[in-house]
Design brief:
Layout (H helix, E strand, L loop, with lengths): L6 E4 L7 E8 L7 E2 L7 E4 L11 E9 L6 E4 L3 E3 L8 E3 L4 E3 L4 E6 L3 E5 L7 E4 L12 E10 L5 E11 L3 E6 L14 E6 L7
Parallel strand pairs: 9-14
Antiparallel strand pairs: 1-4, 2-3, 2-5, 5-6, 5-7, 8-10, 10-12, 11-13, 13-14, 15-16
Length: 202
């Protein structure tokens, strides 16, 4: 079972006046200790208690008959609990911002297989091309990508990363006079307006 999942053991016994006591062994079955409060036909370990620290612990139920012609007890067969670790999934990219329409590769790690959303692609890498939205082309557009990683034991975890697509600058050039041809040596002033206006480079 994967860590952080509840586990239930069930045993049964018949007879008059049967009582139950669950026991556990942490040394391979050499010694057994009663589990406090575990006196019903089922034993449930809460999700928070199921960690890799208790892997290989053995469990059994002791059924005791205290009345009738043949009082005594009987131990059930042993059940060994194997707890597999939840993977620590990572998602990394060379940078967290790109210009709209620029491709970037996101890389996942920590598990054996990966599935990405949005897109539904699989594999350890995801090539994406974040863009601004058509509704707000002048505003940065943060896009969150989530990867689900699964181990060979079937244990699952997720990780997310946000890549922001920054808008491309819009350049408008205007002239000081309403014509586009000049005599040799004449001067003509042109002005470039860039949106967004900051930061700018020539």
């Amino acid at each position: 079972i994967c860590a952080n999942n509840a586990v239930t053991f069930t045993a049964s016994a018949t007879g008059a006046g049967v009582t139950y006591q669950w026991e556990k062994s942490t040394d391979g079955g050499t010694t057994w200790a009663p589990i406090a409060g575990a006196t019903s036909a089922t034993l449930t370990l809460t999700a928070s208690s199921v960690t890799t620290a208790i892997t290989n612990t053995k469990y059994r139920m002791k059924a005791t008959v205290s009345t009738g012609a043949c009082p005594g007890y009987l131990n059930t067969n042993e059940a060994t609990l194997i707890v597999n670790a939840i993977p620590v999934v990572t998602a990394t990219a060379p940078q967290s911002t790109v210009c709209s329409g620029t491709s970037i590769t996101i890389t996942a790690g920590g598990a054996n297989t990966y599935a990405w959303m949005p897109g539904g692609q699989t594999g350890a890498t995801l090539n994406v091309t974040p863009t601004v939205t058509t509704a707000n082309p002048g505003l940065p557009n943060p896009i969150t990508y989530t990867v689900t990683g699964t181990t060979t034991a079937g244990c699952v975890n997720t990780q997310s990363i946000t890549i922001t697509a920054n808008p491309l600058p819009v350049v408008n050039i205007t002239g000081s006079l309403p014509f586009t041809s000049l005599y040799p040596g004449a001067q003509y002033v042109m002005t470039a307006n860039v949106t967004p206006s900051s930061p700018l480079t020539n």
